[in-house]
Amino acid sequence: xxxxxxxxxxxxxxxxxxxxxxxxxxxxxxxxxxxxxxxxxxxxxxxxxxxxxxxxxxxxxxxxxxxxxxxxxxxxxxxxxxxxxxxxxxxxxxxxxxxxxxxxxxxxxxxxxxxxxxxxxxxxxxxxxxxxxxxxxxxxxxxxxxxxxxxxxxxxxxxxxxxxxxxxxxxxxxxxxxxxxxxxxxxxxxxxxxxxxxxx
Length: 200
Prior knowledge:
Oligomer: single chain
Number of strands: 2
CATH class: Mainly Alpha
CATH architecture: Up-down Bundle
Number of domains: 1
Helix content: 55-70%
Structural class: mainly alpha
Order of helices and strands: HHHHEEH
């Protein structure tokens, strides 16, 4: 009986997803952060595209509410990407799949770096935009963040444009990232996508 129980425990341990990364697979924490961030970015992009099409005249309660929620989620995204970076410092990335040409290895690293840069730059430019416009930066109803810069109409308009174009750049880089992952999964049939899935 004890032997059977021991075998069952060892089998369960083999099936459990490790928390940390291994040379061949992402750990459970990295996977959870990746997909949570992906969902959060999707919500933020959809909200942003919807908000810019709303009329900018008078008092629009729906638009104001969306802007406040967008800001709070943007701050949450900033905290999440900082958490991902902190976790990544202590957890080496899994090795790239064997047989990748050098240019694909360089492209993969470049896209990852671009994603991190954009995920940091977007909430920061949103924060600066609100500061330059004299608007509050609340994290839901819990607290407000301080302003970085003084109210300045020129900088306000400039950060609006920068924020918008960074969002377009993020959508482009994410599209490349997704296309590459699906290419590896469906055409090359390697483990690039599977190792970012739980239970593998």
